[in-house]
Amino acid sequence: QVQLVESGGGLVQAGGSLRLSCAASGRTFSRDVMGWFRQAPGKERELVAAISWSGGSTRYADSVKGRFTVTRDNAENTMYLQMNNLAPEDTAVYYCAARPDYFSDAVYLTEGQYDVWGQGTQVTVSS
Q1: For 5-20, what is each residue's pLDDT tens digit?
Q2: Strand ordering across the sheet containing 78-83
């Protein structure tokens, strides 16, 4: 059974940091494009960051550039999102997603391009 499990969410004060993890199981994810999305109450789910299978390509939402960093450890089948200088507007449920890509080192920017999703982890930033 293919599964993604997020962890590391929680409550933090504005200006603080959190590190989210996305652990993959059920198959090897070393050739998967992976991404972090988030959904705040009353809003649509949006891309936060994406990383190619090699880690050589990354992409970030403008709102998190310079504050968030996405990395991955293919040996551990795990992706990370380091979030620094958090703000109340970062409050959301954060989801990780994956999709195999055996032909390129691209990043995927839209929800429909991913075929496996985690259950989400809540991040709450207090002012």
Answers
A1: 999 999 999 999 999 9
A2: 3-7, 18-25, 78-83, 68-73
Query: How far is CA 45 from each of CA 22, 48, 92, 122, rounded to the nearest angstrom?
Result: 17, 9, 9, 13
CA 46 – CA 71 distance, rounded (Å): 19
Would you state the torsion angle of the CA atoms of residues 104, 98, 53, 78, taken in this order, to the nearest 10 degrees? -170
Structure confidence by residue, pLDDT tens digits, 53-73: 999 999 999 999 999 999 999
Could you tell me where the beta strands, DSSP code E, fall in 26-108?
32-39, 46-51, 58-60, 68-73, 78-83, 92-100
